[in-house]
Amino acid sequence: MTEPIEPKTTGETDEQNPEKPELFNRYLAKFIDLLLVLALAKLDRIFGFVAPLMGMTYILISDGFFEGKSLGKKFVGLQVVIERETLLPCNFKHSTLRNLPIGVVVLFLVIPFWGWVLFFTLGLAILGVEAYQIYQDPSGLRLGDLIAETRVLETKNPG
Length: 159
Fold this sequence. Notes:
Layout: H1 23-41, H2 44-47, H3 50-61, H4 71-76, E1 78-82, E2 88-89, H5 92-98, H6 100-108, H7 114-136, H8 143-148, E3 150-154
Helix pairs in contact: 1-3, 3-6, 6-7
């Protein structure tokens, strides 16, 4: 069984939560993951409509890889842990729950024409709410974290 995570202390002056990861790292990790999703979606000439579904599947389960680290999080040194399970690394079930809001946005891109309309209206609004939630929450929790009872921590060793 996987051992609980020992969070890295960041030395920030925020007394409420000294372990809140830097915003830049959180946003960079998600940007890297979304670039991978877009790359998978561009394979539509080879795989047809299945390519965007591959991207959506990746974004849903991404935090279940590498003991709670999507590729983006692994690159910047972040890890998703399950709060109620005493900080055990995120698994595929919790990853799917926490990434449902992002998965819905990616699903819009699968729908011809109207999906793009939904993406540029409702989808960008969802992403904006998620980003704002990370910014304003003292622990850096976003809607997906609240749904899945997870949180993101900085790790001692990136990669």
